[in-house]
């Protein structure tokens, strides 16, 4: 039941946060493989991005990729939150003295996140493709021509097989490991701290709200660079053999982060400054939390 309720809760929130995810995806793809100041900025900030997308693509475009987003949230967070909740209920996250172990909590969060994210990777890839699709005058990143989730999955599967469906999955795992472990560990630790110090009445909803706000800030700071790289890995074009296409020249500058992302295609981050790797930290924190 925990798995079902976790998935349904994530889906309910996804309906409201999906427009933020569309904006985040496009802002992260903006300026890909281009030095700062050499490209046109279609989206200057979150509010300008909302206005531009609504004006050029139409208001319905702010809900692009909603179907795969709902499927992904149900699958990913159903497994992730359900597994973590089960481990917490059975006492695996606490020491012999009954206190929460940050290491066990982080490890459980990371493992639960990896399981859900890897299984849902094909859906997340299609979601990224659909959310990036835009009118030519405001398009950023590679533009796939998908007509919908099932059509996209079928086309990718027919052209590139199962390997193609899980393209970018390994590169996306560091994002989930960092995000999920940070979120769940910080949330549990903050909730325990607030309960021990009795800052709010016992069992008050304010405890969960405050813990979620603290964990949200931690997730955004820790996960954003990996989220930018993951979005670009999922959206980059492929050649006729289904291999990722990126420029292979001048690759030394970002080799360390590329190694952490599990890819040799470090060209995807060529010419990207530390500011660009932290793109869209201005997007409200709950969007990134629900997309962990």
UniProtKB/TrEMBL annotation:
Location within or outside the cell: Mitochondrion inner membrane
Presence of the UniProt keyword Mitochondrion in the record: yes
Cellular component terms per the entry's GO annotation: mitochondrial inner membrane
Family annotation (InterPro entries): MCP_dom_sf, MCP_transmembrane, Mito_Carrier_Antiporter
Reactions catalysed, as given in the entry: a dicarboxylate(in) + sulfate(out) = a dicarboxylate(out) + sulfate(in)
Keywords for this protein: Membrane, Mitochondrion, Mitochondrion inner membrane, Repeat, Transmembrane, Transmembrane helix, Transport
Solcar repeat locations: 1-90, 100-193
Highest taxon, organism lineage: Eukaryota
Membrane topology: Multi-pass membrane protein
Protein task: Putative antiporter that exchanges dicarboxylates and sulfur oxoanions across the inner membrane of mitochondria.
Sequence similarity: Belongs to the mitochondrial carrier (TC 2.A.29) family.
Name listed for the protein in its UniProt record: Solute carrier family 25 member 35
Provenance organism: Sciurus vulgaris (Eurasian red squirrel)
